[in-house]
Design a protein that fits this description.
Low-confidence stretches: 1-36
Order of helices and strands: HHHHEEEHEHEHEHHHEHEHHHH
Distance between the termini: 35 Å
Strand order of the largest sheet: 1-2-4-3-5-6-7-8
Number of helices: 15
Structural class: alpha/beta
Helix content: 40-55%
Amino acid sequence: MVASPSPIGFFPVKQEDMNTAGRSTTTRRRTNSGRPPLCRLQSFGRAATETYLITRLAFTLLRYLGVGRRWISRLLALGLYAMLLMPGFLQVLYRYFTSSQIRRSIVYGDKPRNRLDLYLPKNINSPKPVIIFVTGGAWIIGYKGWGSLLGFQLLERDIIVTCLDYRNFPQGTISDMVEDVSRGISYVCNNIAKYGGDPNRIYLMGQSAGAHISSCALINQAIKESNGESVCWHAPQINAYFGLSGGYNLTNLVDHFDRRGLYRSIFLSIMEGDESLKQFSPELLIDDPSASNAVTFLPHIVLFHGSEDFSIPPESSVTFVDTLKRVGARAELILYHGKTHTDLFIQDPLSGGKEELFDYIVAYLHAGDAEALANDAMAPPRKRLCPEPLVKLAALVSPF
């Protein structure tokens, strides 16, 4: 919650101006207008802090991926992609740093980057459904701010969104990331009621690398509970899991990522070596006979994937859903024809109007709530944030 403005004047009140109450009041009013409100200064400070973090992430990515021809071409394509979509990005960025509907950087743990952003609807007159969102970023440049577009759109439909930050490589490896996300889920499950959220309607969602990390956290939690271990949150507290463009069997993706530029040596360093790939592959974890009892602790799992996703092939979601169904879990796959890795998460939301993924999630969360469904039916079309020609050009040059 943004603090109330507290103006501070640039110039001191002169002694002779204190002779009469009227003159001193006038002077105070004039001096108050000489300096921006404190809340605006705080917003600038937050913007500077977040910009520094994003810049540091970019240099970290360069340092670990190198500057070979392949990555130079990809970085140039990424720069052009971002420039084309900049009209939309700037609107989201401005709202992110100035909106009073966000509580930024709430601490959820004692490790570096154990922070979350909380997106709150304007009117919380009754407990609202909650989505815990874990962003992607190739396990190297994940950042909670990447979920701001989703957060703003869902809060307009009376849905609370929490975007988790977590340690990235090289600050941490995959076990640290899973630990952080699990700790963040625990915080939300145990504290969301005081922010107006309904603890009985909590949903977990991840995108790309975030889908992998969050599914690891969910399945590991189910396995722990099935073994009778002590836990700080319960897998059944999650009503449903939504995985967007994720990879769930790392053993099948090592060579693919190497060809795409996430080189084998780096990827294996992130995943703590060849021997750990199975341990951090949700598909293999749930297919292990020793985890058979964990299936009953899992919520409904819905995976979304674009048929033209070249960053993480759609087969990753296809085989995971097949495995889940085979072991008895409730799972389904929604495949979007012609969609790429970023269409569903970036280009489509920036284009505004009707969007299948967004409509599906809203309808799922509001199922059984007649009033919310009626409000959804009357909601105006979502605003276009970026001109269509620029969105189409960005799709052509996208490095994803």
